[in-house]
Amino acid sequence: MESHSTATDLLDKTIDSLTQGPVDSANDTNSNLLDQWIGILNEGENTRDMAGKLSQLKEAAAQSSPDSATIHGLMNEIADDLQQFSSEVGPEGEIPYQLQGLATALRSASEGLQ
């Protein structure tokens, strides 16, 4: 997996992207973030399922007429996975808190799709 500083930087960028207004998963910045996460998460056996869900999210968002219900559902599933994963990472350091923050940001952003 990526270095600790790379992971925390990517978590910060992702949270910032989600909290900066309406979600447009098809834009270049968000697409690049998704690609980075998919690559990182595919490296770990215990994170490949999340990588698969992110791939589905990217594909759903890239449709000419994205289905907001599908995107909303995937974002909430990923948020649930992040909550679970944050408890498995351990209580020390900033990563668990960032993962929880990312889960919250995903849920908030997905609410804008309803």
Structure description:
- The chain has 114 residues and is mainly α.
- The protein has five helices and no strands.
- Helix 3 packs antiparallel against helix 4.
- The protein is globular and about 40 Å long.
- The protein starts with a helix and ends with a helix.
- The mean pLDDT is 87.
What's the total helix number? 5
Which runs of at least 5 residues are low in confidence (pLDDT < 50)?
A: none
Mean pLDDT: 87
Q: Based on DSSP secondary structure assignment, what is the total number of beta strands?
A: 0
State Rg: 13 Å
Q: Which sheet architecture does the biggest sheet show?
A: none
Strand percent estimate: under 5%
Return the structural class. mainly alpha
Region (Disordered): 1-29
Biased composition (Polar residues): 16-29
Q: Nutshell version of this structure?
A:
The chain has 114 residues and is mostly helical. The protein has helices at residues 4-19, 28-42, 48-61, 68-89, 95-111.
Task: Outline the secondary-structure elements.
Blueprint: H1 4-19, H2 28-42, H3 48-61, H4 68-89, H5 95-111
Biased composition (Polar residues): 16-29
Region (Disordered): 1-29
Overview features:
114 residues; mainly alpha; 5 helices; globular
